[in-house]
Amino acid sequence: QVQLVESGGGLVQAGGSLRLSCAASGRTFRPYPAGWFRQAPGKEREFVAAIMWNPGSARYADSVKGRFTISRDNAKNTVYLQMNRLKPADTAVYYCAGGDSMRSYTDIALESVYDYWGHGTQVTVSS
């Protein structure tokens, strides 16, 4: 059984940083894409960042580009999301997602291409 478990969320002041982790069990992330999505109260879930295992390209939503960095540790089978210069608008539940097929750089921003999801971790940014 595949499980994705997120951690690292919390309460931080605007301008601060957090690093989210997503550990997979039951399968490895590679060689398929992995992504982070978020859902703010009263809003639909939206794409944040994703990474392709081969060749390792990363893609970001415009709202987080330059502030967030997605990375992975193959040995630990873990994907990370480093979030810097956080804003109150970044407040949301953050979900990790793992794919089960090779995907294009365009497709990795779509929820529909991911087969496995974590339960989410809350990130709250105070002003």
What order do the SSEs take from the amino end to the carboxyl end, as H and E? EEEEEEEEEEE
**Amino-to-carboxy terminus distance:** 40 Å
Shape: globular
Number of helices: 0
- Tell me the number of strands: 11
The helix content is under 10%
Task: Give the percentage of residues in beta strands.
Answer: over 45%
Mean pLDDT: 94
Largest sheet: 7 strands, mixed
Radius of gyration: 13 Å
Poorly predicted runs: none
| SSE-based structural type | mainly beta
Topology overview:
Blueprint: E1 3-7, E2 10-13, E3 18-25, E4 34-39, E5 46-51, E6 58-60, E7 68-73, E8 78-83, E9 92-99, E10 114-117, E11 121-126
Characterize the structure shown:
The chain is mostly beta strands and 127 residues long. 0% of the residues lie in helices and 49% in strands. The protein has no helices and 11 strands. The protein has strands at 3-7, 10-13, 18-25, 34-39, 46-51, 58-60, 68-73, 78-83, 92-99, 114-117, 121-126. The strands form 2 sheets. Strands 2, 4, 5, 6, 9, 10 and 11 form a 7-stranded mixed beta sheet that branches. Strands 1-3-8-7 form a 4-stranded antiparallel beta sheet, with no helix packed on it. A hairpin with a 6-residue loop joins strand 5 (46-51) and strand 6 (58-60). The mean pLDDT is 94.
